[in-house]
């Protein structure tokens, strides 16, 4: 099963994704996309919180750019891949000095997702619900994030939006009662 979970900051996206991965009853590969080297103390604390919350037996791969490659490496029918998060990965790609990096990285992800045999759960921040921001770079980020979510959602079996810790299934089968009733 391929799933996309979107929502705002601190909406419960990651904890829901982790519960879904646990219930997949497969080996889990957690792909973390945050660039810890470029971030501030607050982001370091967020990363630490995620690390402490994850089960110790999950494999963890940190990647800032080559997401499709890491998915290909982990791909197996016996595996559940959890990617947290698409939005940080997008930021890394857009901020890279290679200005042409983003289109090729996005296409590689879409091509990989279309053939992936593993269960996969993507987490992404929904950032386009507010006003159109000032600044070309800000508008490009919001636009690209929206286009990325649309492309990934089109290939996913289930798409969920979270708000206030509550999941709302937009596409696919409803969540099992034991999944959507838990909060962290």
Describe this structure in a few short sentences:
With 184 residues, the chain is α/β, with parallel strands linked by helices.
- How many domains? The number is 1
Measure the end-to-end span.
Answer: 24 Å
Give the ordered list of helices and strands: EHEHEHEHHEHEEH
Shape: globular
Give the CATH topology. Answer: Rossmann fold
| Percentage of residues in helical conformation | 40-55%
| Spatial strand sequence of the major β-sheet | 3-2-4-5-1-6-7
CATH homologous superfamily (4th level) name: P-loop containing nucleotide triphosphate hydrolases
Q: How many beta-strand runs?
A: 7
CATH architecture name = 3-Layer(aba) Sandwich
Question: Counting H and I runs of at least 4 residues, what is the number of helices?
Answer: 7
By CATH reckoning, the class would read: Alpha Beta
Main beta sheet, described? 7 strands, mixed
Strand content: 15-25%
């Amino acid at each position: 099963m391929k799933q996309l979970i979107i929502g705002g900051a601190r909406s419960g996206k990651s904890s829901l994704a982790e519960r879904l991965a646990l219930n997949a009853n497969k080996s889990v590969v957690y792909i973390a996309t945050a660039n810890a080297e470029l971030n501030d103390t607050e982001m370091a604390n967020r990363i630490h919180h995620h690390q402490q919350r994850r089960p110790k037996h999950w494999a963890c791969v940190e990647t800032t750019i080559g997401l499709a490659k890491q998915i290909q490496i982990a791909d197996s029918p016996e595996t559940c891949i959890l990617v947290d998060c698409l939005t940080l990965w997008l930021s890394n790609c857009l901020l890279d000095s290679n200005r042409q990096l983003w289109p090729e990285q996005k296409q590689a992800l879409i091509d990989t997702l279309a053939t992936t045999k593993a269960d996969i759960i993507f987490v992404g921040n929904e950032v386009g619900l507010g006003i159109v921001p000032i600044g070309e770079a800000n508008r490009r980020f919001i636009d690209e994030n929206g286009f990325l979510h649309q492309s990934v959602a089109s290939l996913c079996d289930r798409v969920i939006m979270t708000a206030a810790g509550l999941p709302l299934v937009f596409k696919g089968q409803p969540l099992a009662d034991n999944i959507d009733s838990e909060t962290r």
